[in-house]
Write a structure and sequence with these properties.
The protein is built from 7 helices and 19 strands. It is an alpha/beta fold and 312 residues long. Strands 1, 2, 5, 6, 7, 8 and 19 form a 7-stranded mixed beta sheet that branches. A 5-stranded parallel beta sheet has the order 10-17-11-12-13. It has a 3-stranded antiparallel beta sheet with strand order 14-15-16, with no helix packed on it. A hairpin with a 5-residue loop joins strand 15 and strand 16. The two termini are 14 Å apart. The structure holds NADP nicotinamide-adenine-dinucleotide phosphate.
Length: 312
């Protein structure tokens, strides 16, 4: 007998889908991942304070929130395998989901594998990550550690423009460091940056390293036109250099957009394959918040439950 529903991924989207699916008596199986796409629990596992997830007036540590979500999934009977999915077959039903340890058949599938924020992998990065470095200004920018300090945003897309504008609420000044001489961001987002007196754009420049002992104190910049390097003092560095959706295993099996995100029908979590649903950042390049991921996880479980009921 196939499982009713297999959930791949264990961030807020996957666990919310699991809680709803389990409470609908679908006895979900979850592959929470092992190393593909980061660590089980998703991007919140590498965040510190989460202050914008409703219900936690004092904030909560990212890993603590994920542990609570995982416990909630287990409480309602979700069976969790700490394994990466290495192969899926969505062309025949029941669907097949395989890891190095097992192969599972499923009547329906919920994809919640998330996206991985790109990093520059600078020499000082491993040491200073979460000590003044982040890939999410909206998540971390309001933390006291970043207040009234000069901050650096790296990138030239919509995220870099949006996040640098957001950071001006807290920072003494925001530098946007971009490797070319023009942004790829939409005109309206660019204009917001250019109009903001607290933002200075440093064109044609790359970040070579991040400097600091226990916390970020500067970045080393290199002008790509002149080759000149210099240190720029700052209290934080935010990467906004794009995301890679974790969809490699689904390539060729369901519709992905040009950037590799799973395409869902507007207003639903239905993918191009009936019975396969997607939620969270793997299908959302716009909002990317823990709470929106959780919300879409709920939608995926409800869509899945209704689809299974119609199939029977
Ligand atoms: P993006 O559009 O892919 O932009 C990434 C930026 O980072 C580019 O400017 C790129 O430079 C730069 N970059 C990439 N790799 C780099 C590297 N190794 N070193 C230095 N710079 C590097 O990513 P995004 O801004 O996150 O946006 C992703 C998608 O979400 C887009 O479709 C965007 O429109 C959408 N989005 C929309 C909103 C909104 O509408 N509110 C907000 C955020 C994002 P180059 O320009 O030289 O390639």
């Amino acid at each position: 007998m196939p499982e009713s529903v297999v959930i791949i991924g264990s961030g807020p989207a996957g666990h919310t889908a699991a809680v709803y699916a389990a409470r609908a008596n679908l006895k979900p199986v979850m592959f929470e991942g092992y190393s593909t796409g980061g660590i089980p629990g998703g991007q919140l596992m590498t965040t510190t304070e989460v202050e914008n997830y409703p219900g936690f007036p004092q904030g909560i540590q990212g890993p603590e929130l994920m542990e609570a979500l995982r416990k909630q999934s287990l409480r309602f009977g979700t069976r969790i395998f700490t394994e990466d999915v290495t192969r899926v077959d969505l062309k025949t039903r029941p669907f097949t989901v395989a890891s190095s340890e097992r192969t599972v058949q499923a009547s329906a599938l919920i994809i919640a594998t998330g996206a991985t924020a790109r990093r520059l992998n600078l020499p000082g990065e491993a040491r200073l990550w979460t000590k003044g470095m982040s890939a999410c200004a909206v998540c971390d920018g309001a933390l006291p550690v970043f207040r009234n300090k000069p901050l650096v945003v790296v990138g030239g897309g919509d995220s870099a423009c949006e996040e640098s504008t957001f950071l001006t609420k807290f920072a003494s000044k925001v530098y946007v460091v971009h490797r070319r001489d023009q942004f790829r961001a939409s005109k309206i987002m660019q204009e917001r940056v250019f109009k903001n007196p607290k933002i200075e754009v440093i064109w044609n420049t790359v970040v070579e390293d991040v400097v600091g002992d226990d916390a970020v104190s500067a970045v080393r910049l290199k002008d790509v036109k002149t080759g000149k390097t210099r240190n720029l003092a700052c209290g934080g560095v935010f990467y906004a250099i794009g995301f890679d959706p974790n969809t490699a295993v689904f390539k060729g099996q369901l519709e992905l957009d040009a950037d590799g995100y799973v395409v869902t029908q507007p207003g639903t979590t239905q993918t191009s394959v009936p019975g396969v649903f997607a939620c969270g950042d793997v299908q959302d390049k716009h909002y990317r918040q823990a709470v929106t991921a959780a919300g879409s996880g709920c939608m995926a479980a409800l869509d899945c439950e209704r689809w299974l009921a119609d199939e029977r």
